[in-house]
Amino acid sequence: MGQILPFTKQVLKNLFSEPATTQYPFVQREYPERTRGHVDINKDQCILCGMCMRSCPPGAITVDRAGKTWTINRFDCIQCGYCTEKCPKKCLSITPGYQEPGPEKYTYSVEVPYEPPKPAAKPVAAAAPAGGVKPEA
Ligand code: SF4
Ligand code: SF4
């Protein structure tokens, strides 16, 4: 009898309390603010420097300077956050929401509007006088 009483208490508590699980996918889970979900880019700030690509352990990011694209394979990303720390322009962030599973790996790519600065024009040499330089007397 002494062993049944705590058991009955637990049964009654479970009967009248909310379930610990949610009815996914009918009820979507709200992620906590600091969830390491997926990497997002603010493409307007990107300077195509490639630091994120070089710092990514699984090589999930590709930066194509000539083609002006930033690409991530979310299936390879391990959400370590190194790219967000290394980006000199702080245009990468990890936001809540995970990559949905799928039968094939695919990449997400954005076109980056960055225009590299033009090289400074060289100063024009002073024009030589017509007829060349006269020898000194
Ligand atoms: S979070 Fe980590 S694994 Fe994912 S893209 Fe950034 S550096 Fe690569
Ligand atoms: S996202 Fe940041 S680190 Fe990556 S290429 Fe752009 S500016 Fe560089």
From TrEMBL:
<protein>
    <submittedName>
        <fullName>4Fe-4S dicluster domain-containing protein</fullName>
    </submittedName>
</protein>
<dbReference type="InterPro" id="IPR017896">
    <property type="entry name" value="4Fe4S_Fe-S-bd"/>
</dbReference>
<feature type="domain" description="4Fe-4S ferredoxin-type">
    <location>
        <begin position="68"/>
        <end position="97"/>
    </location>
</feature>
<dbReference type="GO" id="GO:0016020">
    <property type="term" value="C:membrane"/>
</dbReference>
<dbReference type="InterPro" id="IPR010226">
    <property type="entry name" value="NADH_quinone_OxRdtase_chainI"/>
</dbReference>
<keyword id="KW-0411">Iron-sulfur</keyword>
<dbReference type="Pfam" id="PF13237">
    <property type="entry name" value="Fer4_10"/>
</dbReference>
<keyword id="KW-0004">4Fe-4S</keyword>
<keyword id="KW-0479">Metal-binding</keyword>
<dbReference type="GO" id="GO:0016651">
    <property type="term" value="F:oxidoreductase activity, acting on NAD(P)H"/>
</dbReference>
<feature type="domain" description="4Fe-4S ferredoxin-type">
    <location>
        <begin position="37"/>
        <end position="66"/>
    </location>
</feature>
<dbReference type="InterPro" id="IPR017900">
    <property type="entry name" value="4Fe4S_Fe_S_CS"/>
</dbReference>
<dbReference type="GO" id="GO:0046872">
    <property type="term" value="F:metal ion binding"/>
</dbReference>
<dbReference type="GO" id="GO:0051539">
    <property type="term" value="F:4 iron, 4 sulfur cluster binding"/>
</dbReference>
<keyword id="KW-0408">Iron</keyword>
